[in-house]
Design goal:
about 130 residues, Alpha-Beta Plaits, two-stranded antiparallel sheet, 4 helices, globular
Length: about 130
């Protein structure tokens, strides 16, 4: 299994709710239409709160608390293998498809802040 995590931030001037609504009703729909067949899962994990530490050592637990985080969503794409990811990237960059995604992103996404993380996924299960 191969996973990619996208860290995405809304563009200035729109709310988190507007960002989420556009992503769910437009951007994810376009993605599923063009390359959903290559993914085994497509999740959007929207920020509600962010917590973290800031101190190491004995005080670490006491310093764990609310923190600012610059992203609005961590989107996950799961695919059978990296070949599927490469095919998605080929589709997204095709001259007839790329303008569709770029035009849609202009409505809600701060493209300069976008981060992509390729993952070697491991699952220990819950049992």
């Amino acid at each position: 299994m191969f996973k990619v995590i996208w860290l995405l931030r809304r563009k200035p001037g729109i709310t988190h709710e507007q960002f989420r609504d556009h992503y769910e009703t437009s951007h994810s729909v376009i993605a599923k239409k063009h390359f959903g067949h290559l993914m085994t899962a497509y999740r959007r994990n929207y920020k509600t709160d962010c917590w973290g530490g800031g101190v190491t050592g004995a005080e670490e637990a006491a310093s764990f608390g609310p923190r600012e985080w610059e992203f609005d969503v961590a989107a996950e794409w799961e695919m059978p293998d990296e070949v599927a990811f490469d095919e998605i990237m080929r589709i997204v960059s095709a001259p007839e498809i790329a303008p569709i995604f770029y035009a849609d992103e202009e409505h809600f996404l701060d493209r300069e802040a976008t981060m992509l993380i390729k993952c070697d996924m491991r699952d220990t299960g819950t049992r």
